[in-house]
Design a protein that fits this description.
Strand content: 15-25%
CATH superfamily: Metallo-dependent phosphatases
Distance between the termini: 49 Å
Structural class: alpha/beta
Helix content: 25-40%
Oligomer: single chain
Largest sheet: 6 strands, mixed
Number of helices: 8
CATH class: Alpha Beta
Number of strands: 12
Order of helices and strands: HEEHEHEHEEEHHHHEEEEE
Strand order of the largest sheet: 1-6-7-8-10-9
CATH architecture: 4-Layer Sandwich
Mean pLDDT: 85
Length: 271
């Protein structure tokens, strides 16, 4: 494979990826979670899930140094000039409670909520990440991303993502009445969930994000890779001192990742 082809599959050079530094206070932890998919139908199920997420956030707040929400927090999100989609009110209020008390919150866009602009940054004082992020924590390195469009294959979605991230396409979509735009988005979202293969583990040699992580390791060492997107809670040792995590989801698994300064481990919220 030619170098140009490798670059197109595995993304940016290390120097081009955003990095942040975190110094973890004693007795504090870093939490990662993804794929809440708030706003799915029926409404009652989404509301019940949202209340459960808020209870989890209440439980971890006192020990949280930094919170990372790694994409697909909403099943659909678009910031019209004077409107945002209904739902998620309790979660947004809880995030504001975190940031108002001095706890940094980082939110990644996913393939379902790719159209986050500046509203959440202004209203909630969060940091929005639209691409991969390297997090350095007291000598440990985390490579964090939602995971959509990374690795080999998935060419159809990569083409769609290029369209969806075009300012002209976003400008056109905003002129749809929200009732029409959100209806279209929900129909699209439901159609994307009809493939039963999506919930299956394909194996270490076929999972695109695992292949992507292994390729990154050939260029630079990372202690942990943290992804969402696949809805499967996974912990895979890639090589000595490098571990791949998939965060799972909050529709079936209710799983998240904790880092306490010594080790990272998956946990399940038992309400």
């Amino acid at each position: 494979m030619k170098p140009k082809e490798i670059s197109s599959i595995f993304g940016k050079k290390l120097s081009q990826i955003e990095q942040i530094q975190i110094s973890l206070p004693q007795n504090k932890k870093i939490y990662f979670a993804s794929d809440f998919h708030l706003g799915t139908q029926p409404f009652e199920e989404s509301l019940s899930r949202e209340k459960k997420i808020v209870r989890w956030l209440d439980e971890i707040k006192s020990t949280t140094a930094v919170l990372f929400l790694v994409g697909d927090i909403f099943d659909f999100w678009f910031e019209y000039k004077h409107a945002i989609p209904k739902g998620g009110t309790r979660l947004l209020g809880k995030i504001a409670e975190f940031t108002d008390s001095g706890i940094p919150v980082h939110i990644f866009t996913g393939n379902h909520d790719i159209w986050m602009f500046d509203y959440l940054e202004q209203e909630l004082n969060v940091s929005i990440h639209r691409k991969q992020l390297i997090v350095n924590v007291d000598g440990k390195t985390f490579f964090v991303a939602h995971g959509d469009g990374l690795g080999p294959n998935d060419k159809k979605f990569k083409r769609l993502k290029k369209i969806f991230t075009q300012p002209f396409f976003q400008w056109c979509f905003k002129w749809l009445h929200p009732d029409i735009g959100i209806l279209i988005a929900r129909l699209w979202s439901n159609s994307s969930k009809t493939n039963p293969e999506w919930e299956k583990y394909f194996g270490e040699d076929k999972e695109w994000l695992i292949l992507y992580a292994k390729r990154k390791l050939e260029m630079h060492h990372f202690d942990y890779f943290v992804f969402g997107h696949r809805h499967l809670p996974l912990e895979i040792i890639l090589k000595e001192k490098s571990v791949y995590f998939n965060l799972g989801d909050w529709m079936v698994n209710f799983t998240y990742l904790i880092y306490d300064g010594n080790e990272a481990k998956l946990a399940r919220f038992m309400d």
